UniProtKB/TrEMBL annotation:
Gene3D superfamilies: 3.30.70.120, Periplasmic binding protein-like II. Belongs to the ATP phosphoribosyltransferase family. Long subfamily. This is ATP phosphoribosyltransferase. The lineage of its organism: Bacteria, Bacillati, Actinomycetota, Actinomycetes, Micrococcales. Its main location: cytoplasm. It is an enzyme of class 2 (transferase). It comes from Micrococcus terreus.
Length: 283
């Protein structure tokens, strides 16, 4: 049975529940449950603190883990675990911030106090940039308050919208330390065969989220032009209609291009244009 670590709370927890549910796996209904067995799919989910997931996976106790790239790197598990799949949600940026106008570059942090909840990640980054702070101040949360309270001169934290920083009178500066998103991790060197079905399912969900299915009717003499608008992954599906001058076409289209494609098809002469969601796919 495949043993998988999933965040027990926070934004990643809900997103993880959604993607595994869409992939056909049972998920817990009560947030107090720590383990969920899915015997039909030979999978067992363990709901853990997001910061601990990399440690469990790196030790080989669990076969897979869903966590954030920032949390994975901050755990400093070395080469005992590896990222095997980016999941495209939970995106954020890890950046430096300070009171507006105080600093403009990374070099300004030489000899300064920097507050963060990501000590390992920050230490590794500063080492590569040859910047030595006075010290790194570890805080478990609310690092935005550390400067105004005199604990630090600047902070390094995960930034999503930046609204929290702005409310605290702070601004980001310098280049981003890293960009993060939800990822799937596994023990280094673990068998790929055991996890292949799960990864195909997750990949199918991710692709289905990015595409829609477009169906439309078009005159046969316009088919080549219409197919150029909707080429699909390999090629569109063409079906004859009772009226021999017309054909029905079906093709996958990127969701963010859906309305433009429908407009272009209509302008070309296609009719009965229908877009429908794709719930799952195998490529």
């Amino acid at each position: 049975m495949l043993r998988i670590a999933v965040p027990n709370k926070g934004a990643l927890s809900e997103a993880a529940r959604e993607i595994f549910t869409e992939a056909g796996y049972r998920q817990r209904r009560d947030s107090r449950e720590l383990v969920m067995r899915d015997p039909d799919n030979q999978v067992e989910f363990f709901y853990l603190r997001p910061r601990d997931i990399a440690v469990y996976v790196g030790s080989g106790t669990l076969d897979l883990g869903l966590t954030g790239r920032d949390l994975f790197q901050d755990a400093q598990v070395g080469d005992t675990a590896e990222e095997i799949m980016a999941l495209g949600f939970g995106r954020s940026t890890f950046r430096f911030a300070a009171p507006a106008g105080r600093y403009s570059s990374l070099a300004d942090l030489e000899g300064k106090r920097i507050a963060t909840s990501y000590d390992g990640l920050l230490e590794d980054y500063l080492a590569t940039q040859s910047v030595t702070p006075e010290r790194i101040v570890h805080l478990d949360g609310a690092v935005e308050s550390s400067v105004s309270l005199g604990v630090a001169d600047a902070i390094a934290d995960v930034v999503e919208t930046g609204s929290t920083l702005k409310a605290a009178g702070m601004e980001t500066f310098g280049d981003p330390i890293m960009t993060s998103e939800a990822i799937l991790i596994a023990p280094s060197g673990a068998s790929e065969e055991a996890r292949s079905v799960l990864m195909r399912r997750l990949q199918g969900v991710l692709v289905a989220r990015r595409y829609v299915m477009i169906d439309y009717d078009v005159r046969r003499d316009l088919l080549d032009a219409a197919a150029a608008v909707t080429p699909g992954l390999e090629s569109p599906t063409i079906s004859p209609l009772q009226d021999e001058d017309w054909v029905a076409v079906r093709s996958m289209v990127q969701k963010d291009q859906m309305n433009k494609v429908m407009d272009d098809l209509y302008a070309l002469g296609a009719r009965a244009i229908l877009a429908s969601a794709i719930h799952a796919i195998r490529l």
